[in-house]
Amino acid sequence: MTVIVAFGALITGLTVKIAKPEVPDQMVILPAFSLKSLIEPSAVSIAIVGSFLAIVYSALLSFVSVYANEINLTEVSSLFFVVYAIILLMSRPFTGKWLDQYGPNVIVFPSIVLFAFGMFVLSQSSGAITFLVSAGMIGLGWGTLFPTFQTIAIQNAAPRKRGLATATFLSIYDIGIALGSFLVGLIAAKMDFSSLYLMCSFYVLIGAILYYLLQVRKPTKQELNVQQSLQVKEQ
User: Fold this and answer.
1) What is the pLDDT of residues 130-169, one digit of tens each?
2) What CATH number does the domain containing 78 carry?
3) Domain presence at residue 34
4) In this predicted model, what pLDDT tens digit does every residue of 195-204 receive, in sequence order?
5) What number of helices (H) and strands (E) belong to the chain?
6) Which are the contacts of 52, defined by CB distance < 8 A and separation ≥ 6?
7) How far apart are CA 206 and CA 65, in angstroms?
8) How far apart are alpha carbons 205 and 108 in whole angstroms?
9) Which pTM was predicted?
10) I need a surface site. Which of 49, 90, 193, 233 has the fewest CB within 10 A?
11) Could you say which DSSP state residue 17 is in?
């Protein structure tokens, strides 16, 4: 099935037409290659937050089916990410509009709380209803956080560096997924999955503090410009 989907992606990708950039009047000299050229600094802080929370998401990807088998819910384990995806798709139009109207903080903090509460419900699940309800809450919580974080990374970068900002965000985010799969596997070997997911629910709440410290308290471009203007006037 995945081969068919991958082949379909290849076919549709070939149909995409990209407009050729206009040739500038003067030759643009590109900077020499360096490690710094692979990273967009403005995207690092929000990428760290995303990577931090991605560790918990990796615990779901790797072990939710094993956990379902542990609590005798094997027959509904395959529905977990189906419910997750349905709730995610239903919420996207609303969350995108609210993000544009009210800014990211109105979306991020409630989504983190919802993500944490979903993990808590999952840790206490003993039946199919609570198991699938947790999937919906996590889909609404984490499923909203990921695109919001990526949008923040893009908006913080200059227009010509938005592609680099996207690459920076995804690279650091993937580190969280990879690291989480390894660390959670080590922890899961020493405790039951119910306790593991309960611990994850509190871990997610720490992400709200991290977001506040790295993103909310960080001065905006407008504030930085005002500060620079004041410094110039004082001099």
Assistant:
1) 999 999 999 999 989 999 999 999 988 888 888 889 999 9
2) 1.20.1250.20
3) no
4) 999 999 999 9
5) 9, 0
6) 176, 206, 207, 210
7) 26
8) 12
9) 0.81
10) 233
11) -
